[in-house]
Amino acid sequence: MIHAVVMAGGKGERFWPYSNSRHPKQLLPLVTRLSMLEDTLKNIRAFSKTAPIRLVVSKNLEKPVKAKSKGMKKVLTLAEPQGRNTAAAVALAARLIQREDPQGVMLILTADHAIRPAAEFSKAMAAAAKVAERGDCLVTFGIRPSRPEVGYGYIEAEGDKSITGGLQVFGVAGFHEKPSEEKARQYVDSGKFFWNSGMFAWRVDYLWEQFQKYLPQTARAFEAAGDLDPRKANFSSKLKRIYANIPDISIDYGILEKAERIRMVIPEFKWDDIGAWSSLDRLHSADAQGNRSIGETLLLDSEGTTCFTDAGLVCAFGVRDLLIVQHEGVTLVADKAHTARLKELVKKVQANPKWKKYL
Known about the structure:
alpha/beta, 17 strands, five-stranded mixed barrel, globular
């Protein structure tokens, strides 16, 4: 059986002030009229109407995430007692899947990616599941780069390609951190490097062997807790003990970059990691002056400006290459060249107790 696991935590600080601790970006309609989480769930259900879905979230997002999935069958929300990065989230979902389907295939997805069309998403998930179900490798999704992006990690392909489900599949020579612009160009020109999508597939028993080998502390903590059943009253207390004794590490660093056998499926869907406000410039069309508007805006004698508001009218006159955001009493005006550093601004806001309500 195939099991979908969606990592739906995270603060989304790079989309502040629209994204905040109460409603981070995955709960917001940044790409379509649905929230990004709802878009993800819609894609999953287009692929399989019956696959169990587990949403792994931070404790403070449990209620709003449940509200977004209300009415959907076979969807379980799992609230982590504290943040321990993606390896912990994957391990939690894996242990629950092991209880009911010891050789089940896990699809690891995120709630903050723009993926379309749904038909190509389904094709990619089916191909990855077919590769993973053999139980002898970990599977990742490599996105064919369309530009020398310095904000993404890259995966280096090796060996001759094979075809599964109509899609190319390669071996993996290694993972590479976010590169310099020059290095990114070299990667793209080589044709051997793909963007690391942060999505994976594997059989749960094979994955757990990798946890035992590369993250033994995490494996032992979950195994020592015995049976984990979300329906039982002791589930939350068990999770607290587990999370107090496991490392804070990503699944990429903890396992993927150390594993000996990894296969990479190359999807044909359009993909974007909605990581910052600059992402919207790739997803929304511009007018003749290169401006993009979301909400009630008036941009006069302005060029290359992106304006977002859900709280009244925003007017800009004679400006160039700005990001303007208005939401819940906060107005952000930034040169687009500085938006990648938005976390620095958020930290300044966090440092002032008077401004806590804006976070």
